[in-house]
Amino acid sequence: MTMRMRQLVLLSTALTGLAGTAQAQQTPPSTTPPSEAAPPVDTSGDATGEDVVVTGYARSLRQAIEVKRSANAVVDAISAEDIGKFPDRNVAESLAHIPGVSIDRRFGEGEKVAILGTDPALNRMLLDGHALASADWGGNDNDPSSRTFNYSLLAPELVDRLEVYKSPEARLEDGSLGGTVIVRTRRPLELEANSLFGSGGYTYNDRSDKGSVRGSGLYSWKNKDETFGFLVAATYDKQQLVRAGVEFFGYDNSAPNADGTYNSPFVNRDSATGALSLKNPNATISGGTISDLYKAASPFGINYAYFQQQRERTSVSGTVQYRPASNLTLTLNGLHINGNYNNYSQAMYTIPGAWSGADLQSATISNGLVTAASFGAATSQRNAQVDTLVRATKLKTDNLNFFADWEGDDGAKVTFLGGWSKATGGRNPEYLFNVQTKLPFSYAISPTTAEVNYTGDLTNPANYFTNPQNNPVTIEGVPYNVNGTQLNAAQIGGLDYSVTTDRDIFGDFDATVPLGDGFFKQVLIGARITDHVNKIDARGINTYLTTSKLGSELGVTTLTTPDGIFDGSGGSGSATQYLNLPRDAVIDILANSINTPLFTKVGGSTRVEERTAASYVQVNFDQGGLRGNLGGRLVYTRDVSYYALSLPTLDNPNPVPVPTSTSTDYLKFLPALNVAYEINPQVIVRGAVAKVISRPRYQDLAASITQNDVTFDAGGGNPNLKPYESTNYEVTAEFYPRAGALLSLELYRREIGNYILSTTLNNQSFYNSLEGRVINTYRLSSPINAGKAKVNGVLVNGQAEIWGGFGIQANYAYQDSSTSVIPGVDGELNLPYLSKHTVNVIPYFEKGPFQARVSYNYRSSYFRAIGRLNSFEMVAPYNQLDASASLALTPNISLTVNAQNLLDETYLQYSGTRDRPSAFYKNGRTFVGSVTFRM
After folding, report:
1. Which of 292, 406, 574, 663 is the most buried (most CB within 10 A)?
2. What whole-number distance in Å separates Cα of residue 923 and Cα of residue 569?
3. What number of other Cβ atoms are within 10 A of residue 400's Cβ?
4. Does residue 461 have a cis bond before it (omega within 30 degrees)?
5. Cα–Cα distance between 190 and 876 in angstroms, integer?
6. pTM score of the predicted model
C-alpha cells in the first residue's frame, strides 16, 4: 500500500467514524443569529440527555464551530481553550489544522501559511482587523519583503481566536488572494476582573542537543462598573535550531539551446564540424557515449550545509479600555515584539562543471543525468569552497492602535480607528568569509542521497587557502585607493548591513445603519487610507588580502563539523566533516585583514512607497433562513519604487549605480456576494463569489539587481508589475447534528489573472568583483505578469465528541492548479505551496484533570519556487506527527508536555523530477514541558 493510500485510508476511517458518531448523537442545536462577535457556545448535553459540562479543548472546538456556523461568509476558526492556552505552541501550526491551510517546514516550525492553494505572500494577516508591519530575519529565501507575516513571532498566549475568511466581505481589508487571517486578541472589559495567567517551561531540540527556558504571563483588571480596564501580557521564548543537509544549486545543461546545441561543462563541440571531444581526453564514460555526456544534465553545485540558529523572542502587549458612556468604548492597545534570530552557517560546496569540468576523470550517466563523477586536483583556481556566515539579526515589531466604538439603541454602530506599526529586520551585520581547496573529489547522487568524497583531509586547515586572485578594487564603480594608489587585492569576504524597514500608518471609518425588520437588515459603509513604506538600507565593508594565506596561517582556532550532524539527512561521504571556523574566529580574521570603510550599497538599497485609499458599501440581509451580504469595495493604489541600476558595457565594465524611480497606480472595484441558507436547523449551504486583488511583493516592485559572483546568479525586480487579480468562488454544505459536531463539504475555485512568476534570462553580462572582469554567463531572474492561473479544490471536514472524553477532528483537501505557459518553459506549473493532497487527523481525549492530543499532518509534493538555472523547485511529500498532554494538579495549576516532529521527518526538495534532488534537511524533534497557573 502506497504512502498516499495509507493517508486516504486513515482519513476515510476517521471521517466515516465521525459521520456515524454524529448521526447516532443527533440533537437539535440552538439557533444562533449571525454575529461578528464570538457567539455563545452550548457547553452541555450528550447523547443520553444528561448534563455534561464541556471545558478545555472540546469547548474551544465548540466555539470554533459556532463562529463558523453563525458567519455569513465562508469562515473557519480556532479558539483558545482558556486565557494563555492556545492549542499549539505556534500560531501557524494551529492554522495548518484548518482544511485548505498549509505551512512549509523548511526550518522546522511553521512561519508562513498558504491558504487555498495560494502563496503565503498573497494572503494577509490582520491583527484585530488591521495589517501589521512585518520584516524577516534575512536568511529565509522564502519571502524577502513580503506582505505576509512571520507567525513564529506571534506568541500564541496573546491570542483569543483566529478566524480565516476564505470568502471576502466588502467590509474587510483587501489584498488577499486565498484568504484573510484575522487574529483577535483579548480585551480587559470582556474578561473577569483580576484574571491572572502565568506559565514557565523548558524547550529541548534533539538535533541541537540544547534546551532553553520559556515563560509568559497575563494580568487583566476592570472596575466594578465595568467602565475602565487594562490588560498587560508578556512572553519569552527561546529555541535552539540546528539543521544539517545537502543542497544542489540547480542543474547544468538541463535543456538544449534554441539551435539544438548544448552547453556541456565536460564536452567541447567544434562549431564548424560539430565534432565532440572531452575537455579532459583521459576521462572515462560509463552508461553512455560522449554524445550522451554532451547532452546530459549534471548538478551545478553540491553543498553540505550546516546551519545553527538561536531564536529568542520577547513580546509585551497592553490594552486600556474606557467606557465613558454605556454606548461608547474607547480602546488603546500596543504590542512590542523583539526577536533575536542570530544564526551561523557553513557551506562546503563544489561546482563540478564550472570549476572542475576540465579535470573530469570519470562520469556515469543514467537517464540523461550524470549521477556520479570523479575529478582530479584542480588545475583552475579551486575545486571546492567553504563559506562561513555569521549573521546578527534582530527583528522588532511595534504596533499602536486606537479604537472608538459607538453603538446606538437601534443597532446603529460607528467606529473610528487609526494605527501605526513598524518592523525592522535583516542582516545587521552579516560576516562572510570563505576559503578554497584544490583537493580531488568524487560525487554520487540518487533521489534521496548524496555522497561526496575528497582525496585528502578536509579537516586539515593546511588544505585550504584564501582567494588568490588579485584584481584592482572598486566600490560601487569607483576605484578604491590606499595611500593614493588603487588597491590590487583579492576579496576574501566582508560585512553586509542590509536592514529592512516596514512601516504602516492607517485611518479607518466604519458605520452600520439598521434598515428595520425587512429583508435587508443593515447597510455598512466605510473608508480606509493607508500609507506604507518598505525599504532596504544596504551598506557594507569589503575585506581583502594582497597575498593568499593557507587556512593554517590564519592565526585562529579551527574546529570541524560535529560528528554525526549529517546522519539521517541523506548526505554522506568525507564532505560531512570539514573545516569549521567558530564565530569569533571569522570576526577576528576579517578584522585583521584589509577592510574598506563602511559604504552605502546604492545598487542594493531600495524603497517602495505605497498609498491606498478604499471605500465600501455592504448590505446585510436575513429572512426566512436566507442570510448573507452584498457589497463592493473601491480601491485606489499608488506605488513609487526607488532603486538604482548599473549596467556594464565594454567601455565601462563596472559603472557607478544610477538612482532612479518608477511610479504606477491603479483603481480597482471589488464586488463580493455571500449567501447562506439554513435548510433546517442542522444543515446550512453557502455560496460566495468575489473579485479580489493581491499586490506584488515589495521587493519585486524594486528593480535593483543583486548578484552572486560565485554561482553567476543575479536577480532583480520589476516596478511595473500589476497586482494579481482573481475571481473567487466558494460553495459549501455544512451539517451540524449536535453541539460539538460538524461535517462539511467545501468546493472552491480561483481564476487568477496577472499571475506573477520569476523568469530567467541566460547569458547576461555583469561585473564580477571576485574575478575583476565582466562575465557574460550570468543568469538573471526577474518577476513578470506571466498570464493566468486557475486553482480548484475540494475540502472535506469533520469533528465530533465521541464518548467517554474521546473526540476527533479530521479533514482532507484536494487541490489542483494550472497556469498559462511561461515563455521558454514547456508545460504547466502548480501555484507555489499548493499540495494536491493534504490530510489532518487529530484524535483527542479529555476527561477530568487529564487531556491528551495527537496531531498528524500529511501533505503531498508541491512546487516551491523557480530556483537557480530555471530549476522547478519541488518539495517531496511530508509527514508531521505532534503530541501534547496536560494534567491539572489543582483547579489553578497544570502541567503540560508537547512533542513536535516525532517522526524526525526529512525535508526533501527536488528539481522538477525526483531523480534530481535539490535539498535534504534534518531539523530534529522538539520537546517542551511547562507549568501553568491561572486564576
Report:
1. 574
2. 9
3. 14
4. no
5. 45
6. 0.86
